[in-house]
Specification:
The longest helix has 18 residues, at 289-306. The protein is elongated, with a radius of gyration of 21 Å. Helix 3 (136-145) packs antiparallel against helix 4 (157-164), helix 7 packs across helix 8 (289-306) and helix 8 (289-306) packs antiparallel against helix 9 (310-319). The chain has one domain. It is an alpha+beta fold and 333 residues long. The chain is built from nine helices and 13 strands. A seven-stranded antiparallel β-sheet has the order 3-4-11-10-9-8-7. Strands 5-6-13-1-2-12 form a six-stranded antiparallel β-sheet. The protein has helices at 4-12, 87-90, 136-145, 157-164, 202-205, 245-258, 261-276, 289-306, 310-319, and strands spanning 18-23, 26-30, 45-48, 52-56, 63-70, 77-86, 99-103, 116-119, 128-133, 167-172, 175-179, 197-200, 221-228.
Length: 333
Amino acid sequence: MLDLNTTLSNLLNDQNTGWNMGSFGAIAEFHHVAGDTAPAEVSGLQQATSRGGVRIDRLEGVTPVAYETLSPKPHRWTQAVSLCLPAAEAVMHQRTVLTELGPDANALRDTDRDAILFDMGLGQFQVDFCIRTADAELLGVLRDSAGQSLFEPGNPAMGAILKAHPHRVALTRLGRVEVYQMIGGPDTGGKSPEGPHTHVLPKLLRAERTHSANTPIPEGLVPCCGVHPQNPVIGRLGEDKPFVKEAFEMFQALLKGWGPEDYLMGKNAAWSGLHRGTAATEVNEPTSRIGRAGWRNGIRQWRVLHGNSALLSDWATAFDRDPDQTDPENPGH
């Protein structure tokens, strides 16, 4: 039986684990950067660096859901644990206009607690997506624009935000993620900086979804925090890397404890068929969508664990072919 508090505490002290809070289209991510100071032992479920931080304030009522999803690249898969609450407990303020909230008394660092927090007004179900600043010039623009949508034509606030690079703070019923680095855009060469960063994607916001359709969150639950232990085949910057068996086995333990039953049954059925040497023409893939995802990832993982073979190639040709089940590899988008 996995203990949630102990598991999260261990993962917070693992510099290869990433974290995020947000929604489908507005997300704040916290990652350690290779070469930065290793995580420090701290009280409570939190971790911070000079680039950003995360804190989990609540575990009561949380349902952890571990899952693997299909990558567009057939030799990969993605993985995560979503910390979920019932919808009625997960809902935030859903403000739709820029709103001043006052000093951020609950900031991770003492030095940020006098800075002023503004809800950006993105209207998302499970996250209040905010910015925080003590910059007098930016504060003036934000206060003049309060009560308006950031996306209203002629509103100068978004341009001022992109120019000033204030802290971004994602607040959920479970805690917060803070990002201190620059906003990805013209000042960063069009790329998000390595490590903690945020994405606000208006096209996805308009979908008004709490999470991707390919994320197997049980009905009635809403993901409020994403946990991303080290992926065994994908590196920190999205590159391919040699298989890390220890990372694979660690996540399989989380999946066994917190994963969807249909997914586990699908993957185990694929492994069993491959182990027996059963021809692809003699087996049937699962009927459920989540079961088929487990089946397909089972084929991919069997290749990494046992090497390629004519049998495996036949299985991959027959079954690993559905592009509609794949997700982008950026978690939470």
